[in-house]
Design goal:
- The chain folds into 2 domains: 194 residues, 3'5'-cyclic nucleotide phosphodiesterase, catalytic domain (Catalytic domain of cyclic nucleotide phosphodiesterase 4b2b, Orthogonal Bundle); 120 residues, Orthogonal Bundle (Catalytic domain of cyclic nucleotide phosphodiesterase 4b2b), CATH 1.10.1300.10.
- Helices cover 62% and strands 0% of the residues.
- The chain has 22 helices and no strands.
- Helix 7 packs antiparallel against helix 9 and helix 15 packs antiparallel against helix 16.
- 41% of the residues are buried.
- Bound molecules: zinc ion.
- Zinc ion (ZN) binds next to helix 10.
- Its EC number is 3.1.4.-.
- Belongs to the cyclic nucleotide phosphodiesterase family. PDE7 subfamily.
- One of its GO terms (molecular function) is metal ion binding.
- It catalyses: 3',5'-cyclic AMP + H2O = AMP + H(+).
């Protein structure tokens, strides 16, 4: 796999080399491991040719299967009209905060991201406004959906669909809806749908300590977010969805999508939050100003990305289980290869309840508190209401498990800045 990936090139008709690169952690991890076995010095991290890999891991696997004649059962045509009808029915309430993305994903046979985003493009009049070719749009969305790793318990296309749906709810809020331009809406939906593209299912500290080529490429800074953004740009160019626009506009779109996706780096939350707070204290946000609108869209995407605890308990609980499963899976690999288990990733010492209570206290509550100051609507109150109830439920679970109710995960307590735990960076 490693050898073959190193040799793959994708070149578009225009001669432009797409910027998408595979990000599966184990490939590089194996590479490093084998390298370590073969060499006494582990100093050398990644070869230049390794960095030039251009296919996402997902797409590589598919093409590899195709050339080996292995057919993967594709059940996309087995849906009967009943399912399609129910999915359509659900889309009529796509702006509802109780929207059940898991059910929608089942009804669309695992195509929630494509179906939902296509529908939203239509609903917001973007296809007409930007004269989009619907075939190209669908192709773009299918490529986006396929480049999410379905084997990730959490960071998969359903999470992206969920974030896109939440983003749509925020775009409808009165303050935003009356000032946003079609351009703003277009960028918001694309950024939401692609914000975790080709996510490898492990976090940045893991990529850094295993000398993953992405960590080298992005100099250990917003490694995943940079990769999601560059992957999105690769797909946008490859699909030709905006080929009819001027180069200037396409470049502007790419950089603004980047600003939105990079804002989802949770380790930067403090900076964004204090900026948001200062604006609200001064009362100087003016949504006629494009820069201010853009900043609010960054905050909206940040909210959409971590809004799981603000959903109903039934939905929220499922997300909590999935994200913990992904953390613990990383911890298992770290144990197996003696890499030092990252905070929150040890299934022996952590519990879902502890992790969730820490997450809500240090990250979600401060963010949504400010969001409610900015947009004091029924939706904001609903979200804060769910947040409070869900936290109380997890505290109940925690009490049952430990016999005391006030434990906050020490990994969160150790943080001097309200960020998700980061391991010391290895340079
Ligand atoms: Zn995300």
């Amino acid at each position: 796999y490693i050898r073959m990936l190193g040799d793959v090139r994708v070149r578009s008709r225009a001669g432009f080399e797409t910027e998408r690169r595979g990000s599966h952690p184990y490939i590089d991890f194996l590479f490093i491991f084998l390298f370590f076995v073969a060499n006494s010095e582990i100093e050398v991290s990644v070869s230049a040719r390794n960095v030039r890999r251009l296919l996402s891991f997902q797409r590589y696997l598919r093409s590899s299967r195709f050339f080996r004649g292995i057919t993967v059962p594709n059940s996309s045509n087995i849906l009967d009209d009943d399912y399609n009808g129910q999915a359509k029915c659900m889309l009529e309430k796509v702006g509802n905060w109780n929207f059940d993305i898991f059910l929608f994903d089942r009804l669309t046979n695992g195509n929630s991201l494509v179906s939902l985003t296509f529908h939203l493009f239509n609903l917001h009049g973007l296809i007409e406004h930007f004269q989009l070719d619907t075939m190209k749009l669908r192709r773009f969305l299918v490529m986006v959906q396929e480049d999410y790793h379905s084997q990730n318990p959490y960071h998969n296309a359903v999470h992206a669909a969920d974030v896109t749906q939440a983003m749509h709810c925020y775009l409808k809020e009165p303050k935003l809806s009356k000032s946003l331009t079609p351009w703003d809406v277009l960028l918001s939906l694309i950024a939401a749908a692609t914000h975790d593209l080709d996510h490898p299912g492990v976090n940045q500290p893991f990529l850094i300590k295993t000398n993953h080529y992405l960590a080298t490429l992005y100099k250990n800074t917003s490694v995943l977010e940079n990769h999601h953004w560059r992957s999105a740009v690769g797909l946008l160019r490859e699909s030709g969805l905006f080929a009819h626009m001027s180069l200037e506009n396409r470049q502007l779109m790419e950089s603004q999508i980047g600003d939105l996706i990079l804002a989802t780096d949770i380790s930067q939350q403090n900076e964004y939050l204090s900026m948001f707070r200062s604006h609200l204290d001064r009362g100087d946000l003016c949504l006629e100003n494009a820069n201010h609108r853009h900043f609010i869209l960054q905050m909206a995407l940040k909210c959409a990305d971590i809004c799981n605890p603000c959903r109903t308990w039934e939905l929220s609980k499922q997300w909590s289980e999935k994200v913990t499963e992904e953390f613990f899976h990383q911890g298992d690999i770290e144990k197996k290869y003696h890499l030092g288990v990252s905070p929150l990733c040890d299934r022996q010492t952590e519990t879902i309840a502890n992790i969730q209570i820490g997450f809500m206290t240090y990250l979600v509550e401060p963010l949504f508190g400010e969001w409610a100051r900015f947009s004091n609507t029924r939706l904001s109150q609903t979200m804060l209401g769910h947040l409070g109830l869900n936290k109380a439920s997890w505290k109940g679970v925690q009490r049952e498990q430990s016999g005391s109710g006030d434990d906050v995960d020490p990994a969160f307590e150790e943080m001097d800045s309200d960020i998700l735990p980061q391991e010391p960076r290895l340079s």
